[in-house]
Specification:
The complex is a heterodimer of chains A (about 110) and B (about 120).
Chain A (H helix, E strand, L loop, with lengths): L2 E4 L4 E4 L4 E3 L1 E4 L5 E7 L5 E7 L5 E4 L2 E4 L9 E3 L8 E8 L5 E3 L3 E6 L1
Parallel strand pairs in A: 2-12
Antiparallel strand pairs in A: 1-4, 3-9, 5-6, 5-10, 7-8, 8-9, 10-11, 10-12
Chain B lengths: L4 E3 L2 E4 L5 E6 L6 E7 L6 E7 L2 E4 L8 E4 L6 E5 L8 E8 L11 E2 L3 E5 L1
Parallel strand pairs in B: 2-11
Antiparallel strand pairs in B: 1-3, 3-8, 4-5, 4-9, 5-6, 7-8, 9-10, 9-11
The chains are: A mainly beta (about 110), B mainly beta (about 120).
Chain lengths: ~110, ~120
Protein backbone atom coordinates (compact mmCIF):
# COMPACT_ATOMS: atom_id res chain seq x y z
CA UNK A 1 0.00 0.00 0.00
CA UNK A 2 0.90 3.65 -0.10
CA UNK A 3 3.42 4.72 2.51
CA UNK A 4 5.87 7.40 3.54
CA UNK A 5 9.24 6.97 5.22
CA UNK A 6 10.90 9.97 6.77
CA UNK A 7 14.13 10.60 8.59
CA UNK A 8 13.99 9.66 12.22
CA UNK A 9 14.66 12.30 14.79
CA UNK A 10 15.16 14.03 16.92
CA UNK A 11 17.17 16.62 15.04
CA UNK A 12 18.93 19.36 16.98
CA UNK A 13 20.45 22.32 15.18
CA UNK A 14 21.89 25.68 16.06
CA UNK A 15 20.14 28.80 14.84
CA UNK A 16 20.99 29.69 11.20
CA UNK A 17 22.07 26.13 10.39
CA UNK A 18 20.93 24.36 7.21
CA UNK A 19 18.10 21.87 7.59
CA UNK A 20 17.31 18.76 5.58
CA UNK A 21 14.66 16.25 6.58
CA UNK A 22 14.53 13.30 4.20
CA UNK A 23 11.26 11.82 2.98
CA UNK A 24 10.67 9.01 0.51
CA UNK A 25 7.40 7.50 -0.58
CA UNK A 26 5.84 4.40 -2.10
CA UNK A 27 2.63 4.82 -4.04
CA UNK A 28 0.80 3.61 -7.10
CA UNK A 29 -0.07 6.30 -9.56
CA UNK A 30 0.82 9.92 -9.01
CA UNK A 31 0.32 11.07 -5.45
CA UNK A 32 0.31 14.60 -4.12
CA UNK A 33 2.97 15.22 -1.49
CA UNK A 34 2.79 17.38 1.61
CA UNK A 35 4.76 18.58 4.58
CA UNK A 36 2.74 19.31 7.70
CA UNK A 37 4.11 20.93 10.85
CA UNK A 38 2.95 20.62 14.43
CA UNK A 39 4.16 23.38 16.74
CA UNK A 40 4.14 22.68 20.49
CA UNK A 41 0.60 22.66 21.82
CA UNK A 42 -0.97 23.22 18.40
CA UNK A 43 -2.66 21.16 15.71
CA UNK A 44 -1.24 20.03 12.38
CA UNK A 45 -0.78 22.80 9.84
CA UNK A 46 0.05 22.50 6.17
CA UNK A 47 3.55 23.82 5.52
CA UNK A 48 3.84 23.18 1.78
CA UNK A 49 2.73 20.82 -0.95
CA UNK A 50 3.47 19.64 -4.49
CA UNK A 51 0.99 17.92 -6.75
CA UNK A 52 3.12 16.67 -9.66
CA UNK A 53 6.64 15.64 -10.50
CA UNK A 54 9.29 18.40 -10.48
CA UNK A 55 6.96 20.81 -8.64
CA UNK A 56 8.60 22.73 -5.84
CA UNK A 57 6.55 23.65 -2.80
CA UNK A 58 7.74 26.54 -0.65
CA UNK A 59 6.59 28.46 2.40
CA UNK A 60 8.23 30.39 5.27
CA UNK A 61 11.68 29.72 3.81
CA UNK A 62 11.10 25.96 3.60
CA UNK A 63 11.27 24.16 0.25
CA UNK A 64 10.69 20.65 -1.05
CA UNK A 65 10.85 19.32 -4.61
CA UNK A 66 8.74 16.39 -5.85
CA UNK A 67 11.28 13.96 -7.36
CA UNK A 68 9.55 11.10 -9.13
CA UNK A 69 12.79 9.42 -10.20
CA UNK A 70 13.94 9.05 -6.60
CA UNK A 71 10.41 8.96 -5.06
CA UNK A 72 11.49 11.68 -2.65
CA UNK A 73 10.22 14.95 -1.19
CA UNK A 74 13.00 16.17 1.09
CA UNK A 75 12.34 19.26 3.22
CA UNK A 76 15.03 21.96 3.30
CA UNK A 77 15.59 25.34 4.86
CA UNK A 78 18.71 27.40 4.47
CA UNK A 79 18.74 29.06 7.88
CA UNK A 80 16.58 27.75 10.71
CA UNK A 81 15.27 29.82 13.58
CA UNK A 82 14.34 28.92 17.13
CA UNK A 83 10.70 29.40 16.14
CA UNK A 84 11.02 26.52 13.64
CA UNK A 85 11.22 24.05 16.52
CA UNK A 86 8.35 21.65 15.91
CA UNK A 87 7.49 18.17 14.65
CA UNK A 88 7.48 17.85 10.85
CA UNK A 89 5.39 15.23 9.03
CA UNK A 90 5.76 14.16 5.43
CA UNK A 91 2.54 12.86 3.86
CA UNK A 92 1.06 11.70 0.59
CA UNK A 93 -2.42 11.63 -0.83
CA UNK A 94 -3.11 9.30 -3.73
CA UNK A 95 -6.83 8.62 -3.64
CA UNK A 96 -9.88 10.09 -1.98
CA UNK A 97 -7.63 12.66 -0.32
CA UNK A 98 -6.88 10.55 2.73
CA UNK A 99 -3.37 11.22 3.90
CA UNK A 100 -0.65 8.69 4.62
CA UNK A 101 1.80 10.19 7.09
CA UNK A 102 5.35 9.47 8.06
CA UNK A 103 6.24 9.00 11.71
CA UNK A 104 7.32 12.61 12.15
CA UNK A 105 10.69 14.27 12.81
CA UNK A 106 11.13 16.43 15.88
CA UNK A 107 13.31 19.47 15.23
CA UNK A 108 14.82 21.52 18.03
CA UNK A 109 16.67 24.70 17.15
CA UNK A 110 18.95 26.15 19.83
CA UNK A 111 19.92 29.82 20.01
CA UNK B 1 -13.50 32.01 9.86
CA UNK B 2 -13.59 29.23 12.39
CA UNK B 3 -11.38 26.24 11.88
CA UNK B 4 -12.08 22.61 12.65
CA UNK B 5 -13.09 22.12 16.26
CA UNK B 6 -13.16 18.95 18.31
CA UNK B 7 -14.61 18.11 21.67
CA UNK B 8 -13.78 17.11 24.25
CA UNK B 9 -10.10 18.02 24.07
CA UNK B 10 -9.26 15.42 26.72
CA UNK B 11 -11.13 12.31 27.72
CA UNK B 12 -10.27 9.75 30.35
CA UNK B 13 -12.27 6.53 30.19
CA UNK B 14 -12.17 3.38 32.23
CA UNK B 15 -11.59 0.23 30.23
CA UNK B 16 -14.88 -1.07 28.95
CA UNK B 17 -16.63 2.31 28.79
CA UNK B 18 -18.05 3.75 25.58
CA UNK B 19 -16.85 7.15 24.38
CA UNK B 20 -18.07 9.62 21.74
CA UNK B 21 -15.78 12.17 20.13
CA UNK B 22 -17.20 15.11 18.22
CA UNK B 23 -15.86 16.99 15.20
CA UNK B 24 -17.18 20.25 13.77
CA UNK B 25 -15.63 20.74 10.33
CA UNK B 26 -15.18 24.00 8.50
CA UNK B 27 -18.54 25.11 7.11
CA UNK B 28 -19.03 24.00 3.53
CA UNK B 29 -16.29 21.39 3.53
CA UNK B 30 -17.41 18.30 1.67
CA UNK B 31 -14.88 15.82 2.96
CA UNK B 32 -14.24 14.81 6.55
CA UNK B 33 -11.56 12.46 7.84
CA UNK B 34 -10.74 10.82 11.14
CA UNK B 35 -7.18 9.85 12.08
CA UNK B 36 -5.63 8.14 15.08
CA UNK B 37 -2.25 9.37 16.30
CA UNK B 38 -0.37 7.23 18.78
CA UNK B 39 2.33 8.83 20.90
CA UNK B 40 5.41 9.58 18.84
CA UNK B 41 3.81 8.45 15.59
CA UNK B 42 2.23 10.07 12.59
CA UNK B 43 -1.54 10.15 12.18
CA UNK B 44 -3.10 6.99 10.74
CA UNK B 45 -6.22 7.09 8.60
CA UNK B 46 -9.40 5.71 10.13
CA UNK B 47 -12.32 6.71 7.95
CA UNK B 48 -13.55 9.20 5.35
CA UNK B 49 -16.89 10.88 4.60
CA UNK B 50 -18.03 12.76 1.56
CA UNK B 51 -21.00 14.73 2.82
CA UNK B 52 -23.04 12.18 4.80
CA UNK B 53 -21.74 9.13 2.96
CA UNK B 54 -19.00 7.09 4.60
CA UNK B 55 -16.94 6.14 1.55
CA UNK B 56 -13.99 4.49 3.23
CA UNK B 57 -13.77 2.89 6.65
CA UNK B 58 -10.86 0.62 5.91
CA UNK B 59 -8.72 2.12 8.67
CA UNK B 60 -11.08 1.45 11.56
CA UNK B 61 -9.15 -1.01 13.75
CA UNK B 62 -12.11 -3.07 14.95
CA UNK B 63 -15.88 -3.24 14.96
CA UNK B 64 -15.80 -1.36 18.26
CA UNK B 65 -15.12 1.79 16.25
CA UNK B 66 -18.01 3.51 14.55
CA UNK B 67 -18.28 6.91 12.86
CA UNK B 68 -21.21 8.85 11.52
CA UNK B 69 -21.96 12.15 9.84
CA UNK B 70 -25.74 12.04 9.47
CA UNK B 71 -26.35 15.52 8.05
CA UNK B 72 -23.08 15.95 6.20
CA UNK B 73 -21.65 18.37 8.73
CA UNK B 74 -20.82 17.40 12.33
CA UNK B 75 -19.29 13.97 12.77
CA UNK B 76 -19.02 11.66 15.76
CA UNK B 77 -16.48 8.91 16.29
CA UNK B 78 -17.72 6.35 18.80
CA UNK B 79 -15.59 3.73 20.46
CA UNK B 80 -17.38 0.97 22.31
CA UNK B 81 -15.92 -1.05 25.18
CA UNK B 82 -12.68 0.95 25.17
CA UNK B 83 -9.38 -0.87 25.58
CA UNK B 84 -6.02 0.46 26.70
CA UNK B 85 -4.67 0.20 23.18
CA UNK B 86 -7.29 2.77 22.11
CA UNK B 87 -5.36 5.47 24.02
CA UNK B 88 -4.27 7.98 21.41
CA UNK B 89 -5.02 11.41 19.99
CA UNK B 90 -7.96 11.32 17.59
CA UNK B 91 -7.72 13.93 14.86
CA UNK B 92 -10.45 15.19 12.60
CA UNK B 93 -9.75 16.97 9.32
CA UNK B 94 -11.94 18.52 6.66
CA UNK B 95 -11.39 19.47 3.05
CA UNK B 96 -13.27 21.32 0.35
CA UNK B 97 -12.67 18.56 -2.16
CA UNK B 98 -14.63 15.50 -3.08
CA UNK B 99 -13.22 12.20 -4.22
CA UNK B 100 -11.40 13.48 -7.26
CA UNK B 101 -9.44 16.14 -5.47
CA UNK B 102 -6.06 14.66 -4.58
CA UNK B 103 -3.84 17.56 -3.60
CA UNK B 104 -6.47 19.57 -1.76
CA UNK B 105 -5.39 20.71 1.68
CA UNK B 106 -6.85 19.04 4.72
CA UNK B 107 -7.48 21.31 7.71
CA UNK B 108 -6.93 19.61 11.03
CA UNK B 109 -8.60 20.11 14.35
CA UNK B 110 -6.66 20.19 17.64
CA UNK B 111 -7.52 16.59 18.41
CA UNK B 112 -9.05 14.72 21.33
CA UNK B 113 -6.57 12.99 23.61
CA UNK B 114 -8.16 9.76 24.84
CA UNK B 115 -6.65 7.95 27.79
CA UNK B 116 -8.09 4.57 28.72
CA UNK B 117 -7.22 3.44 32.24
Amino acid sequence: GDSVTQMEGPVTLSEEAFLTINCTYTATGYPSLFWYVQYPGEGLQLLLKATKADDKGSNKGFEATYRKETTSFHLEKGSVQVSDSAVYFCALSARNNDMRFGAGTRLTVKP
Amino acid sequence: GAGVSQSPRYKVAKRGQDVALRCDPISGHVSLFWYQQALGQGPEFLTYFQNEAQLDKSGLPSDRFFAERPEGSVSTLKIQRTQQEDSAVYLCASSLAGTSGAGYEQYFGPGTRLTVT
